[in-house]
Design brief:
Length: about 100
């Protein structure tokens, strides 16, 4: 996982690039702590440069959603490519999370 973050007044932006897999669990949890500590009301994961994701990566989005619910921020997944978007819809993540096109 390659990660770039920025923040404005109410939104934390995280661009997740390359691959999201089980081996990224620790830095992903650190990302979630950073979002909560920032005081942001919304966290946008920009997935436009995410090329692949495994089942653990998908599970991390659910952990992020739960973390947001517990700490008062909303998770938005934005710009997933065709492959990643298909996996999100197959897993019915679109029924739980907010998905946005680029």
């Amino acid at each position: 996982m390659k990660l770039t973050t920025t923040q404005d007044r109410t939104t934390f932006h995280a661009r997740i690039a390359d691959r999201l897999a089980f081996s990224d669990h620790k830095p992903f949890r650190e990302l979630l702590f950073a979002v909560t500590d920032s005081g942001a009301k919304t966290c946008v994961f920009d997935l436009s440069q995410l090329n692949s994701i495994d089942s653990s990566g998908l599970g991390m989005f659910m952990v992020a959603h739960e973390e947001g619910v517990s700490n008062g921020w909303e998770l938005v997944l934005k710009g997933a490519n065709e492959h990643v978007n298909a996996l999100l819809k197959l897993g019915k993540f679109d029924e739980i999370l907010t998905l946005q096109e680029a």
